[in-house]
User: What shape does this take?
Amino acid sequence: MAIVAQTSKFSTYGRPVLAWGVGLLFFFPIFWMVLTSFKTDADAVKPEFLFFFTPTLENYANMTQNYDYWRFATNSVITSVFATLFSLAVGIPAAYAMAFNPSRGTKDVLMWMLSTKMLPAAAVLYPMTFLTKSMGLFDTHFLIIIVLSLINLPIVVWMLFTYFKEIPKDIIEAAKMDGVNTWGEIKEILIPLAWGGIASTALLTFIFCWNEAYWTVRLTTIDAATLSKLIEGNRAPEGLFFGRLSAVSTAAVGPIVVLGWFCQKQLVQGLTFGAVK
Amino acid sequence: MSDRKLPRLLQTPAVLLLLVWMLVPLGMTLYFSFIRYVLNSSRRPEWTSPSISNWRGFGNYEFVLKSKDFLLAIENSLIIVCSILFLTVILGIMIAVLINKTFAGQGIVRVLLISPFFVMPAVNAVLWINMILDPVLGLQGIAVAGINDILDGLRAMPVLGGFFSLWPDLAPISFRATQTSAIAVIMMVTWQWTPFAVLIFMTSLQSEDQQQKEAAILDGASVWSQFRFLTLPHLGRPIAIVVMIQAIFHLSLYAEIEIVSRGNGNKNLPYLIGEFANNNIGAASATGIFAVILANIVAIFLLRMVGKTLME
Assistant: This one.
């Protein structure tokens, strides 16, 4: 019983304090970035203005002028949205087939799909550059959309598969009896029933596309360059532009971090393929 | 159309796309790895376009194996991945156990904790290496300068000053340097991925058998043995999954390494490939094949470990 008393003492005082400490520690770098974004470039590197300073919005106002932010942001939105849609369009039928009409090979196909994620992107860097340049696709939205949707396709199929598996097969069977065709089953039954799962798959895929930092950097120059490329190009401001760099970074990650808060649960199910519940 | 054919047809686009996406570039890499192929050469212009007549056999592989960067890159890849895995799993379990019980503001702490995971890698690296770790202008520099100022003040004290003047000034560490850049990368990636581990372990802890735990408490089991014999075994599968997923992502780390030091002293395999690809495509491709082999070894090992639990 002594142990129980001990733990409860820790639970009332120690645990909340320690937990809040850890939470604040992990959030601190983000807080610091947001705070710095409201300082002028000059103030941002002065120790006397560490926490107390005159806040300014000039870094945000000058984002277009300093970094051409909106062009990169538009590219990020276009490529992420269309890549998400495309991977869903390819992934939904595939996951549907695997979940409701599994064959002996289904497990192997799923495993193989997952294994393509393990292929190091860098290994095919030059062929990709070579192929896309010779096809005139280098630095185009089309290319980035295709690449982003393909690198996320395995995860999309896996996630959808785990959601679809939970739909009772009887419902689909009943629809079949009623003479509904496959397209009708997907459109009228599957999508409405698995809407939550599809939405969280889409959300997570969108986040992954937005944050992708290998192909979007290596296969673009200007026209299709995303926010990753923009930030990567300003990697070493040598302290001169901490304020403005913080502002553009905050603008680049802010929406996604907030979006992420809303899909924590889906993240677990999605990234562990339903194996952790 | 028969009932059996249609399902197969429905998954054809996905399978076909992935197959093409995987096989075509990989096939080209394999081909380039066996020929002499450079982007610029005034001495041997015939090597600047891929051709079977420039066949080199395993020459590129030999060249890569002999280059001093290659073993370093493999070593670095493994050191970085293993350190991150070790740190995120340990920290993840500790934090998950800490915040799993109800306390005031649990929801907010969760939100604070998970946030780093959604920060794009490029921003993560730029933020850490500049605003936080810079030896002069970052928080590190400011903190070190502050501590040194305090030391100066203490040294000026009448009696105790003599004691403090024995202490040396703190020197800030440059994390862009050869010996330290890997540490910076490990730090920033650990910061980003610990939340992921926490989230998964926490989800798993919620399904822990509470009755078993209560029985253990009644039997007088210590907090440690409850953790060791009940919680830890329960976390076996989530740990395996956290390890697998992170290994996939971290073996191909690139942006962080590029931003921290442009690979100075800290190249991993993807980075080395990128460097070779600036001119020597043959060597870049051979390195790529080595990277594929390494990834496959890791993948086979991990899928063995996790694959069965995924399919249940």
